[in-house]
Structure formats: C-alpha cells, structure tokens
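Protocol step 4 of 6: record predicted structures for both targets in the notebook before any analysis. Target 1:
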Amino acid sequence: MHDFLIKKLNTNSLETELLNIGYDKSYSFKGKEKFEYLNFKIFNITSAQGNILKQLALSVGADCATHKQVITGEIQNSDCILGGNISQLRTIAKKLQLQPFSLKDLGQVIEEKIIEKEPTKTKIMGILNITPDSFSDGGKYYSVENAIHHLEELINDGADIIDIGAESTKPGAKEVSADEQLKRIIPVLNYINKNKISIPISIDTRNSEVADVCAPLGASIINDVSGLDYDKNMANIVSKHGLEVIIQHSKGTPETMQNNPQYNNLMDDIFKSLKNKIYYAISKGIKKENIIVDAGIGFGKSREQNFEILKRWKELQSLNCPIMLGISRKSLLNMPDASNEEKDLYTLALNSILINENIDYIRVHNVKIHKKLLEIFP
C-alpha cells in the first residue's frame, strides 16, 4: 500500500493554499469558493418552496434537508437546511430568483448572506457598576469618588466604551427605581462633561426615564438587558434621542430568569427573539445601524446553554447587527469562591476565543488584560 501524505486543512486562507500548490492566480479568488462550505437554516418554508429548493440544490451538487413529508405534501411548512460550497450556493440563489412562490426574495437573501463582512477589531466595553449589590464588585465603586476613580482607570486601561450601571441585574436582583439610579449615575456624567471626556458612554438600564435623563447628559448608548421588554417606552426614548441600543436576549426578569430556563432549540429561539426585537426597534424609529445585539450569557440560561452560545454565537451574524457578549466573572466559569483576579484570567481565556473569531464587542470588568491581549493579536 502506498504511503500517501495527507493532512486536513484548517485555515481561513484557502486562496493562499491554492496559490501555494500552483493554482491559477487569475482564478484563485473565484476558485476558493469551491472549497468554502456554508450551511443555512431557512425557517418555515412551504412544501412547494421546499421541493423546488431541494431540486435546485441537487442540480448543482449541493443538498437541502427538509421534513421527510415535504416531498409528499402531507405537511404545509417545514424548516430546511441548505448546504453547499459558495459557488454552488451562488448558483442556487440565482436560479431561485427565476422561480415562483416568492422564491425570488429567498434567492436575494441567500446572496446577501453569502457575502461576509470584513472583520473588525473587537472593541472593549468596560463595566462601571455604581451599585451596592452587583454580583462581582457590588459596593466597591458605590461612592461617587470611587466610581470616578474607577472610570479613569477603565479609560486609562484602554476601554473603547464605558458601561455605567446603577441597578444590579444578577439572578434574584430586585428592581431599582429610576430616581435612585439617576442619583447614582448623574454625578459621574457631570464629571465626564466637566472634564470633556469623549469616550462613548453606555447606560446599563431597563428604565426609559433613566435613559431619557442620561441622553442629554452625554450618554450615547443604552444597554437594555431586557431587550426593550421591561419598559415599553424604552424604544421611543432611544429613537427620540438617536441613541445606539444594545438589545439583549433574556428569559424572564433577574428575579426569575434562572428558575429552570427551558428552550425548544436554544440558538433558534434566541435568533428568532432577537430578530423580532430588531423589527420592533426599527418600527419605533430606531435606525438599524444603531442596534447591537447580545445573546445574554447568564440571563435565563444554564451553564451548558451558555457554552452552547459561546460555540455558536456566529449564527447570530445573520441578524446583520454587531454582536456583543459578556462573560466576565459570571457563573459559567464555575468558580464561586475564586477571587476576581482569578476569574479575570479565565474570563480572558474564553474571551480570547471570541476575539480570535472577530466578535464585535466584549463586555468586561478587567479592561487592562483584555486590551493587552488585543495588542498581541495580529
């Protein structure tokens, strides 16, 4: 038996690998598409649409999986999984645009999804908790003096955004009134204005009154862990001031969210929920480019579900919004008795994977070590 030398390729630079074996340089950009494979999940198509899609996929050597009864027409609707190399998928998308049953629209969407945006360097959101009861540093920066000191630390350590929160949203936490939140936040915003600090300021709040007061004082982002659910006026306030908004997925309120969270399909449920929230936000006048989404690590998820999100977060890129994740010092680390310094090291280890995968934003307590890591990455 001949001893062939063979290895499995694991690279994002297939074009370089093709050129290294002497592939035609003038065709390498298109040629690489024959070796890059994608799988799309398409929700709730009709049996007629599914049968046409499957036939088109098979005609170019790709495949499309549907419910087993789509071919018989015994069910009306099915989800499907379409898979193939990029070249095949482009052909399918073109052919779909010549088909009936609204498949022209599907073809156009598939064409859009094939195109990957240029990766941008991950930005760091530094956490400033002005609370007596946050899970990690509650009380540490509760006084105005300590809050301002930590604000300066976060800026000096290289934060791209400061996220100021005056209400703990840890599991079991109770709501804090708008008046109390503003009493804690306004002195810090006044300091920022007085000293002409230009770094973007996010306010971590579910309360529209807090957002409405903080916007004229310099806040440019609202980080709503309820995903616009808690306060139905929040979307109106964000729209009114032209703010950016971080729409997070959560299941229940902080008081109830960890009471045995259940999902039909974790990533599908998060995806659909965030998609609906994006539609809702836009309907209220919020610009699509002002929306950031967050899968909500620790907000109504088990430890296993949190790690599933970390493995599959890129599926949310199909929402066409920047993505943020926050794992800093959270319970998924399974280190309840460890010091914050130790938790920060393991947070850094997990975030290094996200940074390598070009996530848009990470939300962290320890900005300094994450900034150093970003400087190391090419």
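Target 2:
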Amino acid sequence: MPPNGYLSVTGIASAQQYLVATYSSICQLIPLPEASIEGRTIRGLKIAGGEGGDRRGVLLIAGIHARELINPDLLVWFALKLCQAYTANSGLTFGARTYDASSIQLLVNELDLFLLPLANPDGRAFVQLPKGYAMWRKNRNPNPGMPCMGVDLNRNFDFLWSSGIGTSPDSCSDIFKGLGAFSEPEILNVRHFLDTYPNIGYFADVHSYSELILYPWGDDDNQTIDPAMNFQNPTYDGLRGTPGDSLYREYIPQSDLDWYVSTGNRVRDAIAAVRGHTYTVQQAVGLYPTTGTSEDYVYTRHFVDSSKGKVRGFVIETGTEFQPPYSEALRVIEEVSAGLVEFCLACQRTVEETLRGGAASAAR
C-alpha cells in the first residue's frame, strides 16, 4: 500500500468541487468528453479573473502515470493557494520564496489557467486499493485479446508513435504504447483541451521522479541549423533515437530553445529558493529517448499544422520518490508550486513581449 495521506480519486474530485463552489468568480469546472476506461468522469479546472483581451492560456496536467501519487495533490493544492491569494489580494510564500499580491493578481487577471489534476483516475484507484499494486504505471485498459492490461498514457500521444523509440508493442510492458496514437480516452481529453481552447500556448506535465525540468525533444539530440531534419521527414525514419551519433538530430528553432532554457532556469531557481533542492534543466532525451510523450506532442502541433498556435511544453519530474511519506510530499508540493507560479509568470511575460513586438511591427 502507498503511504497514508494522499487524496483518493474521490478526494481529488471533491477538492475540485470545493474550489468551484468557494471561488466561483474565478474558478470553473470543465467536464471533459471522455470518461476513463472504467467509466469515471474526468474533469478539469479553469482559473481566470479580470476581463483583459488577448489572454494566453497555460495548461497544467498531472496523474498520467498512476503510481506518481504526489502530483494530482500538488495541482489541487496549487489551485487552492492561488485562488485564496487572489481573492484575498495577498501574496504567496513558499518557504523562502515569496510572490507579492500584484504578481498573483497579474497571473490570474492576464492568463487563462487550465488544470487537469488527474488524467488517469482508474490507475490511481488501482494503486490505492488494499489489494491493488502500488507501482502500477498505466491506465486500466483490459486490452482484449492481449496478455496484459494497461497502456502507458505517456507513450500514446501522436509524436513518432510508430517509431518504437522508448515505447513497446508488448501489452505486458510498462511502456506499452497502445494500439494506435490517441487510442486511449484519457489522452483524448488532453487533446480536447488544446483543440477547444486554442489560446493555450504553454503546457507543463507534472510527473515523478528525478528533480528534473525537461524540454523537447525526447527522441534525439537537438539541433538549430537544418530545418529539414525533423520528425516529419521520412528520409530520416530509422535513424532517430540514438543520442550522440551523427546520423540525426531533431530540429528546434533557436528562439524556442532559448526560451526553453531561460524559462526552465527560472522555474529551477524558484524551486531551489524554497528549501535548496536544485532541479536539473535538460533536454528530455537526456533522461532517455522517448516518443509518444505529452510535451513533444503539444509542441509538434504547430509544426504539423501551422494554423494551430505554438504550444511550448515542459515535463517536471518532482521529488526523489514516486510516493514519498506525505510529510515529504507536502514539502515537494510547496517547492514545485513556487516553480509553477514562476512558470506562469514567465508565460505571461512572453505574451506581453509578443504583443509589444506585434504593435511595434504594425507601427513600422
């Protein structure tokens, strides 16, 4: 059994209902179209105040991997603290890191903040059952006709899904990718957020563990020189997935890479200020090569279809255990919440800079 203290699936749903009932002027519940495999309703939240135009959206998700219990608790705690501070016109303090009231007002008044605290409720429910399995990672798809249950939801996104890089076609594997990209209803809900709210321009998927802040790409080393060497070019099929070789490197525009590094460093520094734990900012492939993952998929959407806005995404790997004792979980929640405030403020600043740049171009 996991340690005591973590919210149950019902507890997370109740926390969301409480937020909406208590802070109805800024917080609304978002029912998502796909129920889980076992029929559970999955809901998101939207936090937004003020009436400003040209609002950019930030999407935060957690709980894709069932055994990573800390992160759904983190997102509902973060939402609660943000709503409390905004409503009271007060600041937020996380250990030695403080954000003043004006920063919190700015965040809520200028951004649309979307949260999906628990993407995989069936998996979490199984992990927390007395006769469940505490280290279960996947969803609970029975995979009819196959020997084992479950799909790794973070190998089910439509980014090089068929490549086999960091994924498995074996249903008994912890990294089983499913029968097709977006075969799983829980992942369709993430895509629904992006399709329904096209103002979403920033994304963070909160996982455990390793104290890492990861940015694209996950399939191979990055390069900023050759735009034709990219995930859509079939010339390079079969050559991806081996970091350090000279055969392939994934293209990323220099401006995007610069943003990822500078923003990742801001998030790292905010986390470290709370109690001295310094997360490492690195390209995702540095952990291990992967495909079908959330942060890469959200970033691909603009490259695949230029009519879609660019979404810059991170994965944050919290803490040093999947299920630390809850006393330690609370410390991790506090430090990463500081990082999430910093991430949102960085996104808001980027929106301002983009708008100023567009106005300057129009003036010329």
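Step 5 preliminary note on target 2. The CA atoms of residues 221 and 249 lie 5 Å apart. The first helix runs from residue 9 to 22.
Proceed to step 6 after PI sign-off.
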